[in-house]
Design a protein that fits this description.
The chain is built from eleven helices and eleven strands. By secondary structure, the chain is an alpha+beta fold.
Length: 288
């Protein structure tokens, strides 16, 4: 596999290489490209995404051999090549060269569910199965106005970090563009959308849970649990044993993931550094 300093954009062979070695959602190039509308690059076993005056560096090496010194070198290579006004770095640690000058900083944990090692409570499985009498579950590749209304409802009632809000807003584009997008819908007996999940199934070794929400207007108790069970079935049908459940985000989301056996497995550090005058969120304004 080519490991030069990335003279061109990500090739199909490089994308397949990344998917085979992926262990975080940001290694799924089609997901990142659809969300950010950026071009993808593979430079010395690190994915990055660039557009206009901004750059995203994924600081998780595909070979899993992370070191602070190597990370510093990777950031330097990217800065020399792309010369961004806005840099968005994510990785297990923020490089020292960036840590003192982050305009925004965030720390979290990725959560994972290993279906081989985790014994899910029988009472939880029974509850999810019982909910099948109250909702019908569909697997689709559509993100409709119905889904958009549930997103609007969520964003009005919950105070979510800006990047999580933008992730929700980007779902229509992601689902339309990504070949590995999967939408799980739970509908009540009248056919109204009660809850939904969005997954990405592109990584070779895990399913990615991207996001989900439920309706207050068409609420059905435990509809989200029923969708979690469906996500497990999707994963098993693809011969995978792991679900990446994304970040903890807040206490409520963490409790739900932990209830189903999710555990933190990898540190997530985020740093936004400005080399110009435009912030990352302003750079995305009107695009998501």
């Amino acid at each position: 596999m080519r490991k030069d300093r990335g003279k061109g954009m990500l090739t199909p062979a490089e994308e397949a290489y990344a998917l085979d070695r992926a262990y975080v959602p940001e290694h799924i190039a089609s997901l990142m490209k659809a969300i950010s509308e950026a071009e993808a690059f593979l430079i010395d076993d690190h994915l990055s995404f660039a557009k206009d005056n901004w750059l995203i560096i994924v600081g998780y090496p595909l070979n899993r051999e992370f070191s602070q010194d190597r990370c510093e070198e990777i950031v330097g290579i990217h800065l020399e090549r792309f010369r961004p006004e806005i840099l968005w770095f994510i990785g297990p640690q923020v490089p020292v060269s960036l840590s003192g000058s982050c305009q925004e900083r965030e720390t979290d944990q990725y959560y994972t569910l290993d279906l081989r090692e985790t014994k899910i409570k029988a009472s939880l499985l029974r509850m999810a199965e019982k909910t099948s009498h109250d909702v019908s579950v569909e697997r689709t590749r559509t993100f409709s106005k119905e889904h958009g209304k549930l997103v609007d409802e969520l964003l009005k009632r919950e105070k979510l970090p800006p990047r999580i809000r933008e992730l929700y807003r980007s779902m229509p584009r992601f689902v339309a563009q990504s070949p590995s997008a999967c939408v799980l819908d739970a509908r009540d007996k009248a056919g109204a959308l009660s809850a939904f999940y969005v997954l990405d199934t592109g990584a070779a070794n895990f399913t990615t849970y991207l996001l989900g929400t439920h309706s207050k207007k068409y609420y059905v108790a435990h509809a989200s649990d029923r969708l979690f069970l469906e996500m497990i079935r999707v994963t098993q049908e693809q011969g995978k044993i792991t679900i990446n459940l994304g970040l903890g985000v807040n206490e409520g989301i963490r409790r739900f993931k932990e209830k189903w056996g999710g555990v933190p497995f990898l540190t997530y550090e985020f740093c936004e550094r400005h080399y110009g005058t435009t912030s990352w969120m302003k750079a995305l304004e009107g695009k998501l």
